[in-house]
Amino acid sequence: MPVTTAATFCATLVDEWVRAGVTDAVVAPGSRSTPLAVALTDRPDLRVHIHHDERSASFLALGLGLATGRPAVLLCTSGTAAAHFHAAVIEAHQAEVPLVVCTADRPPELRDVSAPQTVDQDHLYGTAVRWFCDPGVPEEALRATWRSLAARAVADALAPRPGPVHLNLPFRDPLVGEPGALPPGRPDGWPWHVSTTGPTHVAASDLDVLAPLLDSQRGVIVAGAGAGDPLAVHWLAATASWPVLADPRSGCRVPEPTTVGAFDALLRHAGFAADHTPGVVLRLGQPPASKVLNQWLAGSGARQVQVGATAAWIDPEHSAAVRVVADPTELCIALEKRVTGAKGTPWLARWQHAEGQAQAAIDAALRAYQEPTEPAAARTLLAALPTGAVLVASSSMPIRDLEWYGTPRDGVRVLANRGANGIDGVVSTAVGAALGSNAPTALLIGDIALLHDGNGLLGAVGRDIDLTIVVVDNDGGGIFSFLPQASVLPNDRFEQLFGTPHGVDPAALAAVHGIPTLPWDELTDALAKGPGVRLVHVRTDRAANVAVHDDINRAVIAALG
Amino acid sequence: MPVTTAATFCATLVDEWVRAGVTDAVVAPGSRSTPLAVALTDRPDLRVHIHHDERSASFLALGLGLATGRPAVLLCTSGTAAAHFHAAVIEAHQAEVPLVVCTADRPPELRDVSAPQTVDQDHLYGTAVRWFCDPGVPEEALRATWRSLAARAVADALAPRPGPVHLNLPFRDPLVGEPGALPPGRPDGWPWHVSTTGPTHVAASDLDVLAPLLDSQRGVIVAGAGAGDPLAVHWLAATASWPVLADPRSGCRVPEPTTVGAFDALLRHAGFAADHTPGVVLRLGQPPASKVLNQWLAGSGARQVQVGATAAWIDPEHSAAVRVVADPTELCIALEKRVTGAKGTPWLARWQHAEGQAQAAIDAALRAYQEPTEPAAARTLLAALPTGAVLVASSSMPIRDLEWYGTPRDGVRVLANRGANGIDGVVSTAVGAALGSNAPTALLIGDIALLHDGNGLLGAVGRDIDLTIVVVDNDGGGIFSFLPQASVLPNDRFEQLFGTPHGVDPAALAAVHGIPTLPWDELTDALAKGPGVRLVHVRTDRAANVAVHDDINRAVIAALG
């Protein structure tokens, strides 16, 4: 093979990415992307994952970034291939997941002349990327800039706000070649650029404003994804004598005395909700999914402090009185030193007592069902996972069932695509999370989301993962049964537009991809199988599912009295 | 149900669309889109097709537009759902297929505050749409503008350059309601606006320039998709004594004396190619896929006239001497009146003779194979289709095999997504084409494209179509075996990045969706089955396939002497 500038350029990018800590690349096959695809597979210190469907490939890369905090490099050929990355790019943007997207392109002279597989890839992902760059066809004269390009892509994907970066890379024929000598990197082995993470420390003057709020006698911490170190959060909560209403994704739903997991069910008790209206709310990270919680907070008149590590504006209820851009862990540690707390009042004890009653009532209510229910699937799966496991929860019902009914526990990391809350790409995200975490991984998913990303199963058995896919199969869109559409529309119209039964057997779909299926009562066996992929099929009923939720919520209300 | 402005607004849009000739809508389920989804299904004079996967839904809508020339209305909910339309929107843009894309959105106050399922949908498809409009949350005060909005969406999707239009439609709760009285439409039943198709007639002064060129003794017409009426094209060709090198998608590959179908094979004969270098080329519509043809034309030094009905720039080889924006049919008819032609020279006769020899040589070469080959699958399928049928050909090899080896015939319409030449969405495009054409429809597709749009099979058996899917299954990316990557890279690397075997059995995938599979030797039975969907499985081998193509091309070269 002849030495080509394109091959040297691509080998330089890859060398720089490895220096910058990139460990994984995801490649969707194509011709125009050949120089970079070959350069990626030339490196034994990179794992390269091939996927035929760019959409699934992009969510696999997203899952890698979600699990590791490092950007995966994602590559496709020119044309509409690049458009299939769009949803994952938006999710990476909104969920702040680092990702380096590389789209091969035709050179400028082949654009807008009806040449094949050529589309306008310039700023293809609009406002969703941290940086867009088209460096032009590689030229030797610019070799001194190549390492900067690669290192900056990673740096911008990581800080100050993690997210996707888009490099559009045009190549001319010939597409196959050998790299020549690379431009030298930093002799100390560092990447060409690194970014610091930015000003996320807490200024003393800010603490002066915040600390007095934490002395409220009626405060709650709401911990969502990105809430910071659970130890720091609960330490602050204990000092303040405040409960932590903990989304499972926060990492804070652990067996601590300050943990409240059943907040959704508790706040459905009108009396409890009214009696426990907070005066101050410290919101850490993303909001939980619970509408009941969010509306209770919005209607509380409480002074709400919203804390996030980045400049993202997190306030869907328009209720944040104070917005803090700071590292939540650092903030909790700093505040804890300044807080005296609500000790001597029954505030925290009442939350603790209610949490205990709610958890017992949920258990009792679920024991009444012989057949597996959707809430039980979420609760049981979370409890059954081995320590160190990862649980990926799909939108839209699984993440809610887990949030509403998951028992506090240690040692399981809960991940979900809640940047845009889509049901798309979930299987692939779980495959990526399993690859990135190198840990036993479970996916809790509904049948529609499984079908939507059925291609996520493609090649999964050949990847180095331990993945158990628990599919809650109610043959349609289960969440819609909870919405006004279900009660207002005639049943046939509701089924046509929202129920949307499809009749596809998840086990048959899995079998197409060489994935075995186990029944629900073999869940424990499935989770213990080790490397490989398997599906656990839980058949449920959409109408009955609403009744089950009502049952549980009534049981909690009854327990609270 | 209460009367809501949103319901009235949506019912008005739908009423106007029906007036404007819209017959089909494609809806991907969701909640935010409820007002428009309900309004669409309220109309018994609209067909509404539900699809769980927005990507497949969008290509289904594209297929409807491709087959009918009328825009389908395509609807999804807010969030990343809209991003899954992107590839089909780009294809609709570049292939000039009318399409009205409606994305439901959260209202402005829920944007950019981390509200669920809310992403930046403003100009989401960038430069790929003819018109983007976000009219804001429906307000009664603006009811006089609603019909204009709907009618303009259809008008802009149709003329002067057909393509996609994007309406971003924010809705507030409540999402379910009854429409009140609609604002009155035009009393004559017309839509609020219609557009004329624009200045595509041929000016007399332009004819003065073009007509003398057609008197060249050595001219060829190259007819691609969008070439105009085949009768007009061949009438002009006969008068000029020029051959028509006819892409099957042009409709011009019919049994006329001026038809040359085997141009790719003929031009691989260096002597023939050199002896038949044209002086003038009239290119009608899109370029064919054949690289051999396009490079021969580019290297010919011929004066090339590129004709297209719209302002799109069609000239990947940068060789168009004259660019004509005019209706190709009108142009051919007008030119025919002004041409005297190359009569008395052997030019056309030599092309005709070579075409006859090539077709016979292809037949003979294919008869040598016991097992079905990929060229034979394309040739046989095209020949076997009943009159009135539609054939959808996938990128990347099927469209080429059809172009290179399809025998001229009448009565079959050949469609393909060659705007961006992707292998994406092809199954769904065929489903849409079958729905739109109401005709027996066949799809010729490779295994990778089938897998890529496996979700196109979702619900297909429940739709009112007669569709035979012929899958040429070589367990991987067959076209790459023809590229330099195959000869230069080590075999294991080639297989990893390009060959990419997947091991999925297309018949098993089809069975998941209730679709039966027949062997290749039952093709005729399959095509005669009538309403329903079936798959015909043709197992081939990637390496052998290259040899088969070489064989055929050598046979044609030998026949020419």
Draw up the topology in text.
The structure is a homodimer of 561-residue chains.
Chain A: H1 5-19, E1 24-27, H2 34-41, E2 47-50, H3 54-68, E3 72-76, H4 86-95, E4 99-105, E5 131-133, H5 146-158, E6 164-170, H6 204-210, E7 219-223, H7 230-240, E8 244-246, E9 259-260, H8 263-267, H9 270-275, E10 280-284, H10 291-299, E11 303-308, E12 320-325, H11 328-336, H12 347-367, H13 374-384, E13 389-393, H14 397-405, E14 412-415, H15 426-437, E15 441-446, H16 447-452, E16 466-473, H17 484-488, H18 491-499, H19 506-512, E17 517-519, H20 523-527, E18 532-539, H21 542-560
Parallel strand pairs in A: 1-2, 1-3, 3-4, 4-6, 5-6, 7-8, 7-10, 8-9, 10-11, 11-12, 13-14, 13-15, 15-16, 16-18, 17-18
Outline of this structure?
Chain A is about 40% helix and about 15% strand.
Can you put this structure into words, describing what you see?
- The structure is a homodimer of 561-residue chains.
- The first copy, chain A, has 561 residues and is of the alpha/beta class.
- The first copy, chain A, has 3 domains: 5-170, Thiamin diphosphate (ThDP)-binding fold, Pyr/PP domains (Rossmann fold, 3-Layer(aba) Sandwich); 204-352, Rossmann fold; 368-560, 3-Layer(aba) Sandwich (Rossmann fold).
- Chain A is 38% helix and 16% strand.
- Chain A contains 21 helices and 18 strands.
- Chain A has helices spanning 5-19, 34-41, 54-68, 86-95, 146-158, 204-210, 230-240, 263-267, 270-275, 291-299, 328-336, 347-367, 374-384, 397-405, 426-437, 447-452, 484-488, 491-499, 506-512, 523-527, 542-560; strands at residues 24-27, 47-50, 72-76, 99-105, 131-133, 164-170, 219-223, 244-246, 259-260, 280-284, 303-308, 320-325, 389-393, 412-415, 441-446, 466-473, 517-519, 532-539.
- The first copy, chain A, has a 6-stranded parallel sheet with strand order 2-1-3-4-6-5, sandwiched between helices. Chain A has a 6-stranded parallel sheet with strand order 9-8-7-10-11-12.
- In chain A, strand 13, helix 14 and strand 14 (412-415) form a beta-alpha-beta unit.
- In chain A, helix 3 packs parallel to helix 4 (86-95), helix 7 packs parallel to helix 11 (328-336) and helix 13 (374-384) crosses helix 14.
- The radius of gyration of chain A is 25 Å and the shape is globular.
